[in-house]
Write a structure and sequence with these properties.
This protein folds into 2 domains: 130 residues; 30 residues, no CATH class. It is built from 5 helices and 4 strands, in the order ααβαββαβα. The strands form 2 sheets. The protein has a two-stranded antiparallel ribbon with strand order 1-4. A hairpin with a 4-residue loop joins strand 2 and strand 3. The longest helix is centred in the N-terminal third of the chain and has 31 residues. The termini are far apart. Keywords: Coiled coil, Plant defense.
């Protein structure tokens, strides 16, 4: 009988304590949550820069960029712009931390960190571009002009003949 009462009391305590402690954990881990978000945002920036460089190189090679890569770059830019905004974390002219604001910002940081991590994982592309007929035709035209010896129309291709 005592075991049943203890079991019931433990369940009741679990359901009463968890909702009280959860918000306190956000306030307590405020700095850690913001630091984690900062780290994840930096990782995302690095991945975005790498994907942008690959996309630029593909464009220079007359390739089109995959639509999912363009969408990912757009979503990444939106997230990074939102992240640049900061909140005022002081109350009473900076004399004390504002617990309500810390709770809100910490909770947002955890949520954003999850979104940023998800976006980071989506940024692993097998390929980012594809050759198009227009790009292949342009390449073939350049080769044909070069092979015919009329390379004056090619930018940067100045061959001096003896």
């Amino acid at each position: 009988m005592v075991e049943i009462a203890v079991s019931i009391a433990a369940k009741v305590a679990e359901y009463l304590v968890a909702p009280i402690v959860r918000p306190l954990i956000y306030v307590w881990n405020y700095k850690r949550n913001l630091k984690n978000l900062e780290t994840e945002v930096q990782r995302l920036k690095d991945r975005r820069d790498a994907v942008k460089h690959m996309a630029d190189e593909a464009r220079r090679n007359a390739e089109d960029i995959e639509e999912n890569v363009n969408n990912w770059l757009y979503e990444t830019s939106k997230i990074l712009i939102e992240e640049n905004e900061s909140a005022n974390m002081k109350c009473f002219k900076g004399l004390c931390p504002n617990p309500k604001k810390r709770y809100q910002e910490s909770k947002k940081a955890v949520k954003k960190a999850k979104a940023v991590t998800g976006l980071y994982e989506e940024g692993k592309f097998d390929r980012i571009s594809y050759k198009t007929d227009a790009g292949a035709k342009q390449y073939q035209a350049h080769i044909q002009v070069f092979m015919n010896g009329n390379n004056n129309n090619l930018p940067g291709a100045h061959i001096v003949r003896p």
